[in-house]
Write a structure and sequence with these properties.
By secondary structure, the protein is mainly alpha-helical. The chain has helices at residues 2-5, 13-19, 22-30, 33-42, 45-58, 65-72, and strands spanning 61-63, 83-85. Helices cover 50% and strands 6% of the residues.
Length: 103
């Protein structure tokens, strides 16, 4: 189960969420990029870098994903400015792998 959740950097998103400062945890839970950007500015630079890198390694934050979303906006997808905020998804019981076609 845990192995399936591991992000691209090998970290478990659930474990990373548990270790985030409350201000960052709230941003990820609400999936609010503007709030996340503001929250990062309130943290010491070293702390912010550490936590954001762990979020990237866990797949909670995808740098540059907003750029790809902007391209898909014409297809009715929502675009974000800097990246995509993800969170540990709730298991819907559907274990089928899903793939998206990338042009």
């Amino acid at each position: 189960e845990r192995q399936k959740r591991l992000g691209p950097g090998g970290l478990d998103p659930m474990e990373v969420m548990e270790t985030l400062p409350e201000v960052l945890k709230n941003c990820f839970e609400s999936r609010d990029i503007g709030m996340l950007q503001d929250a990062v500015l309130t943290l010491p630079k070293e702390d912010a870098s550490y936590h954001i890198q762990r979020c990237i390694d866990a797949g909670l934050w995808v740098p540059g994903a907003g750029d790809a979303a902007k391209e898909g906006e014409e297809d009715g997808e929502k675009a974000e400015d800097e990246g995509a905020v993800g969170g540990p998804s709730k298991d819907d019981g559907d274990d089928d792998e899903k793939y998206e076609t990338v042009d």
